[in-house]
Amino acid sequence: KKKKKNSKMKNFCFKNFKPFQPETNDVIAACQANGVSVVAYTPLAQGLLTGKYHPEGDEKNSSSSVALPGGPRAATITPARIAEVAPLVSLMRIVGKNHTEEKNGESTSKTPAQVALNWCLSKGAMPIAGVKSARQATSAAGSMGWRLNKDEIEELDAVSGRITPGLGFPTESW
Known about the structure:
Elements: E1 11-16, H1 27-33, E2 36-41, H2 79-97, E3 101-103, E4 106-108, H3 112-122, E5 125-128, H4 134-141, H5 150-160
Helix pairs in contact: 2-3, 2-5
């Protein structure tokens, strides 16, 4: 007797995907053409695209900012790397303000992390955001239910195109 194929099973391709590193090998297009879903991991570049790291320290930034990461991330998220990515994070803040929501009489802009995750979604990948708290999970959920427009994607792509790929953790390129 021939086994029935489970029609609910999906094919997935896990890709080390950062929206700021342009796709040059057409993996996403090939996956989409063949019905394979692309699952993006490290879409926030180990926290670099959240805007929480600042090379000059906390005093100029919000209470949620961190001067520099500790542990293994300290080897790759350096003051020079943070400074290089800063124009992109600044643009993501501006783009986030274009997507302000009114909730309970209060205006809330999208965060750089939400813009980065939506950027992945807009490029056809399902991002996996490594959340460590309920607050981060709620924030990640804020990347859904809206879309960047074509001009925003093009502007983010243009600014991100000026960022040199760097060594990730443990051996990723971003």
